[in-house]
Amino acid sequence: MKYWAGIDLGGTNIVCGLVDEDLNLLGKLKQPTEAAKGSGFVLERMAAMVKQLLEETGIPLNELQGVGIGCPGFINPEDGVCMFAGNLGWRDLPVAHLLSAKLQVPVFIDNDVRMYVFGEAAAGAARGYKHVLGITLGTGLAAAMVNTRHLYYGGGYMAGELGHIHMEGEHRKCGCGMSGCLETVASATGIVKQVQEVVRTGATSVLQEWLKDEKLDALTSADVSKAYDAGDAVAVQVMQHTGTLLGRGLAYAVTLYSPDALIIGGGAALAGERLFKPMREELKLKVYPGYWERLHIHQGELIDDGGVIGSAAFAKSQVQPI
Amino acid sequence: MKYWAGIDLGGTNIVCGLVDEDLNLLGKLKQPTEAAKGSGFVLERMAAMVKQLLEETGIPLNELQGVGIGCPGFINPEDGVCMFAGNLGWRDLPVAHLLSAKLQVPVFIDNDVRMYVFGEAAAGAARGYKHVLGITLGTGLAAAMVNTRHLYYGGGYMAGELGHIHMEGEHRKCGCGMSGCLETVASATGIVKQVQEVVRTGATSVLQEWLKDEKLDALTSADVSKAYDAGDAVAVQVMQHTGTLLGRGLAYAVTLYSPDALIIGGGAALAGERLFKPMREELKLKVYPGYWERLHIHQGELIDDGGVIGSAAFAKSQVQPI
């Protein structure tokens, strides 16, 4: 039998999983990253986790065909190099080569969002679709495009930065150094910031009762969903604006990529219809009907396991191209 | 020796050219399409033109390796089918198969703009770049993306409709049935319409002196360039707005595709710096610096021969993949 390991390498935790040829998840392990101990430590820990998982599932090392790693930051997947990962403090680290030397199997690395979307396309909500646009709504807004099982990279592996498209009329400062980027609105952080701004200018909201002003800093997008359900005008207005702006940005991506399926993942996707209804309305209004008619919109299916399954599926696709 | 034919199939004329392995144009023929005589006539004419060109250049038929056809409309390049071409009155016509039967060589067909951009990437202004975004500014605004010598298609071969991205604040009716599409402004037609609108509302322009009101219908984007050079305020304002809006739309495409080179072709590209200066300024302002720094902007080089060379180059890439 053939097996593949997938590693979701985050700034806080490493999650490692093992899948079979059909991408069924056979086992999973989680350990802290402890990036401060250096890249050598993190690489050793990843190797040890893969070995432990093989042992626990009773799979011999020689049946492991490859390992995929999803990593936040700028990755060169062709060379297997992490060019820059701020959370890990890594720069120009040949991760694939270094881990491959430890495990004696091929190792592949790519950006975590690309791995997630690859997973949804291979074994999740977008299984069966040829052209898949996936986005994750979390701290930021990230996107990736998969065409017939191939990730779209563009020059410098930088394609798909939907979150950093400048939206007319928006002016909030973005972490990237620009202003008015889509993710300053369409993300968990963006939702929270918009509510904080409106409430602090004196608008009446149930959130003022629920959270004293000093606690407003701890507001989450889940709180905003709760307020929305209680009929709170501020929450409704912010969700409406966020969904509309997301739909407008997606119209650009849909027109340029022509996807068959749009997959929405990430924590803030739990806002569900509160966000998706205005998003769909604006998207339908702003794209040529031919695009809208072929588009299937789904929430992500793989949730917590998306990074692990996607990374393993990507490794499999590199060793056994379809 | 190996040779390839490229056919630029328009509603008015058919242009057929022959290239060698290095994509040098060895000869060219032009004949009216006479589409009203039916698809059988047009196919026979294309076959006859290829044979005549071989004869004139003294190349035996068995050294012809393949033929590429660039055709306006909706094309399925995988199946070699023209799904819809309004100018020709064709629907679901298996052009590649039918012409291949006449010439006994492989025939390939694709959309004319994709063929043009493929040509600029293979043998024109974008030679040597891996990721090439090409646009043509003509009656409309069309675009195509080439990644490492492969055209990007998306679902239904519909990707890249930059001209039909809805621009906030724009409201002109578009030929596609929507309103506010980028090509209602950023195209030869768009430039002309904007000037006509402003002049008809009573603004003072040298174009009123140059062209009597009844002739304003015959205005061209070249006239607007001349008025711009004469310091005409209306022409300057329209070029500025058009360039700015084009830059804004390109910012969406650059962020999502991450091209290494942007090639600008089509008749209205002759406006040159009048249009490109505001375009560059807006594009630089609206994309993440990492995209701007890697982007090289060039005017198209192949001009009239782009369709023919591109179609031949595409046929070559299909028979001899690089």
UniProtKB/TrEMBL annotation, chains A, B:
Matches recorded under SUPFAM superfamilies: Actin-like ATPase domain
TM annotation in the entry: none
Domain of life: Bacteria
InterPro entries per the UniProt record, alphabetical: ATPase_NBD, ROK
Pfam families: ROK
Family: Belongs to the ROK (NagC/XylR) family.
Protein name, per record: ROK family protein
